[in-house]
Write a structure and sequence with these properties.
The complex is a heterotrimer.
Chain A lengths: L3 E9 L5 E10 L4 E5 L6 H8 L7 E6 L2 E2 L4 H7 E4 L11 H11 L8 H11 L12 H13 L5 E5 L7 H15 L4 E6 L10 E6 L2 E6 L1 H6 L5 E5 L3 H10 L3 E7 L2 E6 L6 H11 L6 E5 L3 H10 L1
Helix pairs in contact in A: 3-5, 4-5
Chain B lengths: L1 H16 L1 H21 L7 E7 L4 H12 L3 E7 L3 H9 L4 E5 L3 H8 L5 E4 L4 H22 L24 H31 L1 H6 L5 H30 L8 H24 L4 H19 L11 H8 L2 H13 L5 H24 L7
Parallel strand pairs in B: 1-2, 1-3
Antiparallel strand pairs in B: 3-4
Chain C lengths: L4 E12 L2 E12 L3 E6 L5 H8 L7 E6 L2 E2 L4 H6 L1 E5 L10 H11 L4 H14 L15 H12 L6 E5 L7 H16 L3 E5 L3 H5 L3 E6 L2 E6 L1 H8 L4 H10 L7
Parallel strand pairs in C: 3-8, 3-9, 6-7, 7-8
Antiparallel strand pairs in C: 1-2, 1-4, 4-5, 9-10
Classes of the chains: A alpha/beta, B alpha/beta, C alpha/beta.
Chain lengths: ~300, ~375, ~250
């Protein structure tokens, strides 16, 4: 039985804005599933529908077999939810927050301590500190503990890494991997494309629609054309010139390199391009073939 | 039950860890009592007046002395000419002037009656009426002291007794009103803001996605404010009875009982308000709007309800504060018991039950 | 060629009680540069930016922005810079045109000039059909692009961008950087903070703050060489990993 099922779920808010447009996907038990997309894609709305906080306008779904609308009480008893902004009580201490959430779920810290031990150990030295005075990374860890304390069957994490520095972000994903080994189904939403590869399966979302659902490596394999990375000394000029080249299909900056694809696969296309660019005055040109990243795929899907 | 206790404990933490809330919670009632008790009063004392004494004779002097001796008046100046009176009024120094005509004593003894002119600044009609009443009372008093004991003219003496409040103290009116105001305002404001804060912080979402009935979580928020309001009440009672000699003639239990009902009303109203708004500022504004003005205007302690046109009196009837005010005055000042106030208590309880049911029904178990 | 210095900070410090948020930072930014100001949360970036924008008075040290002293002439600084942040940029309940007119007015543009600029801006951004729509109804990406254009409507010497592309989709992010490049080509100095390490590569020079200090200041290329790293992500990781402070 899949842990989470969504079938053509749509949600329109009062102001007329269509937040979710016939979204469908399913998540297996024990999977680490990522919902990837920018702000406004509909990730939070979907999570709120799955945790029964919002009613969808159309479509239906279930969590652990319980219907989203009719059996919402059962769902609320078994899932763990960490909304954006890390909903913690800023004027209660770390310990008090954890105690409270444990009590909320009719359990105690000791009962499921093994589940949160690895994470809690990192913030234990601060257990008497008020939650409001913790750093972003520590709040994140505390919020995760509070969401796990009752050993949920499904864990919903809505943008847990937003606003947190990249070091803490990496640590967080390590923690998630370890949790997965405990058999908990985890759904995570994030705007960071590079985190997509850390999930087992992902759904790419934009403007309420799901663009693609699959394992990251399959999505990458579906990138339509061979992808090249190219760089030169003057990158912004290079970008302009590349976009004017007939042979080039797409060209986007990707930090150190620009990623380009060609319209038609022809022999010597790379050499031709390098020649043309050298004539235009670009120095130290370097071009190599690369594997597409999730971000490349996302841009490709957006540009369709 | 164990969970409910845990929630209540958490709520107490929130209250005591926020110094601003505590200040508002306890500072407000104390400030109001002191304001209404001491500073604001519609008794007028030591009002400056001027006297124009054309008579300059014995009776006039005696009367002027009597006026000066009264607590209500202070003769600022004795003017020589009635034309100077207008300047004194314009300068704003005085609100009342008394003029003794020429040959006052002579006229009084020979013709049996003399006239005194009282001129009052009626740009504030209430003050003008009050001051001229005081003046007339003093003059009447003096007049009766002049009548020889042997004269047996037919006269009807009115003997006035102000029962329950012989000294006509304003506080007797105000303190019960302040009690109503404080209990209502604090209850509604604190509860609505506290609940909406959960929504703003985002913790409300997490509370909803839990097996625990979120309504119980909300009710647990009301509990600390219930007890704190009772403590507030005690502070007000202590202050008013020690500093302002307010009596507590009736049953203390009855007083607390009625107050408890009012507090629950306030808490339900706070819950109702929190259901309809998502920001703390809006919650605060709505709470103040709904509670402050109606309670001030229609409870009956600032403005007598009997003077109002009947549609407004009807409005007052739907306010719990009006009924509570009656109960408190009956119990505290008149020393009455259950038998006299059971009707009002029943009405109050009915209102409370209604509000409580309504607010519970309207509580949202989803975000939208 | 002597480059004009538009921002100069020397031992710039900000203390909050005992806590030293920004600790004696020293650096210079040249005209027309794209200067990346990186650092983990709590490293002291926001505090530093606030001082440079004239929004907060330093505890000690000196700084000159666009030629104006940060202690004596903070108001002049504010008049000569542009500012855009992720949290607030435009009024959601005003239309596109109204926002442009409002901010243009604040920055001191005269009405004729403002009219012309408004038209130009709307056309360049492709918002002709949306000119009279409420900004709140626009997708986030368009809002950010509009906000940036409004921030430089008065062609300031420097524009400060505080995580301008947070949460924005990858396509719009790049379009945003196209706008940044265009501004830089016109001679506007860009002072930008970001959490996206690929954006760090687009900058001419980067400074990295850790625990209140500037731990590194150089071009992306040189930084990578110095740390034996192939991406800025690795450089960041190296520098930030040893951070003591976990502030926020």
């Amino acid at each position: 039985m899949p842990a989470v099922v969504l079938n053509k779920i749509s949600k329109r808010y009062e102001k007329g804005h269509l937040a979710v447009d016939e979204a469908s996907f399913s998540v297996e038990e024990g999977e680490l599933f990522g919902l990837i997309g920018p702000d406004g894609a509909g990730k939070t709305s979907i999570f709120r529908i799955l945790t029964t906080l919002l009613l969808a306008n159309s479509g239906h779904g279930s969590v652990m077999g319980f219907d989203l609308e009719k059996d919402f009480k059962k769902i609320r008893e078994t899932v763990g939810y960490m909304p954006g902004k890390f909903s913690l009580y800023p004027d209660l201490s770390v310990e008090e927050n954890l105690n409270f959430f444990a009590t909320l779920f009719n359990t105690s810290i000791s009962e499921n301590y093994d589940l949160i031990k690895d994470i809690y150990i990192q913030i234990e030295p601060f257990k008497k500190r008020r939650a409001g005075k913790l750093s972003g990374g520590m709040k994140q860890k505390l919020a995760l503990c509070c969401a796990l304390i009752h050993r949920p069957t499904v864990l919903f994490l809505d943008e847990p890494t937003t606003g947190v520095d990249s070091v803490s972000r990496k640590e967080f994903w390590e923690m998630l991997k370890r949790l997965k080994n405990q058999g908990i189904t985890i759904l995570v939403s994030t705007p960071y494309m590079d985190e997509a590869t850390l999930c087992e399966r992902i759904a790419l979302m934009q403007d309420g629609k799901i663009l693609s659902i699959d394992e990251p490596k399959n999505i990458i394999a579906e990138y339509p054309d061979p992808l090249f990375a190219i760089k030169a000394v003057r990158m912004s000029d290079l970008l302009k010139d590349l976009r004017q080249q007939d042979a080039v299909k797409s060209c986007f900056s990707f930090g150190e390199y620009h990623h380009i694809s060609f319209k038609n696969a022809t022999q010597n296309q790379t050499q031709n391009l390098v020649d043309k660019l050298s004539v235009l005055g670009h120095a130290k040109l370097e071009i190599k073939i690369i594997e597409a990243s999730i971000e490349d795929c996302f841009i490709n899907l957006l540009s369709k | 039950m164990k969970q409910f206790t845990a929630f209540v404990r958490k709520e107490f933490y929130h209250v005591f860890r926020d110094p601003k809330t505590l200040l508002l919670l306890f500072g407000m009632p104390i400030a109001q009592i002191i304001l209404f008790g001491f500073a604001l009063t519609n008794e007028i004392k030591n009002s400056k007046i001027v006297v124009v004494n054309y008579a300059q004779d014995e009776e006039a002097r005696q009367l002027i002395n009597k006026i000066e001796a009264s607590a209500n008046f202070e003769v600022a100046e004795q003017l020589m000419n009635h034309r100077e009176i207008e300047d004194a009024f314009k300068a704003g120094i005085i609100k009342l002037a008394i003029v003794f005509p020429n040959k006052f004593s002579q006229t009084l003894h020979h013709e049996g009656q003399a006239q005194i002119q009282i001129i009052a600044d009626a740009s504030d009609p209430n003050t003008a009426t009050t001051l001229s009443n005081y003046a007339q009372a003093i003059i009447r008093d003096y007049q009766s002291s002049l009548i020889p004991a042997e004269t047996k003219a037919l006269s009807i003496n009115t003997q006035v007794r102000m029962i329950y409040n012989p000294e006509l103290k304003g506080v007797y009116n105000f303190v019960p009103g302040v009690m109503a105001l404080v209990l209502l305002l604090v209850g509604v404001l604190m509860t609505s803001v506290s609940i909406v804060r959960e929504k703003e912080m985002g913790t409300m979402e997490v509370l909803l996605v839990s097996p625990f009935n979120p309504l119980l979580v909300i009710i647990s928020k009301a509990v600390p404010y219930f007890f704190l309001s009772l403590i507030n009440l005690t502070i007000i009672l202590v202050l008013s009875s020690t500093l302002m000699e307010m009596p507590i003639n009736g049953s203390l239990f009855l007083l607390y009982f009625a107050s408890a009902i009012l507090i629950i009303t306030a808490l339900s109203l706070g819950l109702l308000i929190s259901n309809s708004t998502d920001s703390q500022q809006a919650a605060m504004l709505i709470s103040l709007l709904v509670m402050l003005m109606p309670t001030l205007l229609f409870t009956g302690f600032l403005f007598p309800l009997e003077n109002m046109p009947w549609p407004l009196q009807l409005v007052a009837n739907i306010l719990p504060s009006k009924w509570y005010y009656i109960i408190v005055k009956s119990v505290m000042i008149k020393g009455l018991g259950w038998a006299s106030v059971w009707k009002e208590i029943l009405i109050l309880m009915g209102m409370t039950a209604f509000l409580l049911t309504l607010s519970v029904k309207k509580f949202k178990i989803r975000l939208a | 060629m002597q480059q004009e210095i538009v921002i100069s900070a020397h031992n710039l410090t900000k203390k909050f009680g005992d806590f030293v948020a920004t600790n004696q930072i020293t650096f210079e930014v040249y005209a027309g540069e794209i200067f990346g100001f990186l650092g983990a949360n709590g490293a002291g970036k926001t505090t530093a930016m606030k001082m440079l924008c004239g929004l907060s008075t330093p505890s000690s040290g000196e700084a000159t922005i666009a030629g104006f002293d940060v202690y004596k002439e903070p108001d002049k600084i504010k008049q000569n810079i542009g500012y855009m942040s992720q949290k607030f940029s435009l009024y959601e309940d005003l239309t596109v045109a109204e926002n442009i007119q409002f901010f243009g007015g604040i920055y001191g543009l005269k009405s004729k000039e403002l009219k012309a600029k408004t038209k130009e801006l709307i056309e360049t951004l492709g918002l002709t059909n949306e000119a009279h729509k409420l900004v709140g109804s626009l997708p986030i990406g368009w809002k950010q692009k509009l906000a940036f254009s409004v921030a430089i409507i008065h062609e300031p010497k420097i524009v400060f961008l505080d995580e301008p592309t947070g949460g924005v989709d990858p396509l719009t992010r790049r379009q945003f950087w196209d706008l940044i490049y265009a501004a830089s080509d016109r001679g506007i100095t860009i002072f930008v903070t970001t959490h996206y390490m690929d954006e760090a590569e687009y900058c001419d020079r980067i400074s990295m703050m850790v625990d209140g200090y500037i731990k590194a200041l150089d071009s992306p290329e040189n930084l990578k060489k110095a740390h034996g790293a192939s991406t800025m992500d690795e450089v960041f990781f190296n520098l930030a990993r040893g951070a003591q402070r976990q502030g926020d």
